[in-house]
Amino acid sequence: MRIGHISDLHILAISDVRPWEYLNKRLVGGLNLLLNRSKAHSSVVVERALEALASLDVDHIVISGDLTNLALDSEFAAAAEIIRSIESASTRVSVVPGNHDYYTPGAAKEGRFERHFKDYLKSDLPEYQLERGYPFCHLRDDVAIVGLNSGLATPWLFATGKVAEDELEQAARLLDDERLKSRFKVVVVHHPLMADEHHRFNFNRRLLNADEVLTTLRQKNVDLVLHGHNHYLSVLQVPKLGEPGTTYVCEAGSTSMEGGDPVMAGKFNIYTIEDGALAEIETHLFESHESGFRPFRSEVFRQRVEEPAE
Ligand SMILES: [Fe+2]
Ligand SMILES: [Fe+2]
């Protein structure tokens, strides 16, 4: 099974926004985003990434949040249209919200993200879902993909997140379910669970209960955690706590970044899972509009050993 991982698309679609909608938090965030983000993030780059993924033999696509900038209906609609272009999207896509998808209390309260992406939040184990729709679980071949919500409407200049206590409890129960026992377990959550070499847990943009979430996932022997938020390629490893083995914690970076050096340019990952274990992580990098994405980095965890011919 091969899982594609895109993230932090930050689709900008503001044509139908009235100025008064920028009052409150959007006044600061909106102006800032208009000045900076519109130059940096491009939906055309996301379309190129999806074209590349379609040609790379990927079975499933995970999107780890921040699909929008201001959580506007117009942005969600534009992002939903791009996702719908994925072949068999309703069964091949898992998506969770980021802090930008809960940018205002209104967007969070009315469940705007959940309304636009309800097709991708349907759970194969609905008995564990809370009212808002999380945690959800997609069972595909020998893999279970569990989606968590860390989105939080925050004050100005804050991008913090939190997985609600009751949601984490439900996720723990779900991960204990018999039907997940022999499967490779993937959890998707927008905020990072660990600091990496370039990102400490900054006070104003961290996951407030990161330690608690990470400990729970390690206790439940999660194999792979996929996140976004830092816009930075990162592959971290920690031991599982319930059995021998490794929990990998990975971010591809922002997929929609149009230019810049390889650190900043658009990226997506592909995880190959073979015989119930992570075999390889490939990272692909946006090079130019002419050439699209190219292979950038690969980390092999398990070499396939050919049986010697008799
Ligand atoms: Fe982001
Ligand atoms: Fe974020």
TrEMBL record:
Gene3D superfamilies: 3.60.21.10. InterPro entries: Calcineurin-like_PHP (IPR004843), CNP_phosphodiesterase-III (IPR050884), Metallo-depent_PP-like (IPR029052). Keywords: Hydrolase, Iron, Metal-binding. The keyword Lyase does not apply. The keyword GTP-binding does not apply. Pfam families: Metallophos. It comes from the Bacteria. SUPFAM superfamilies: Metallo-dependent phosphatases. This is Metallophosphoesterase. It comes from Lujinxingia vulgaris.
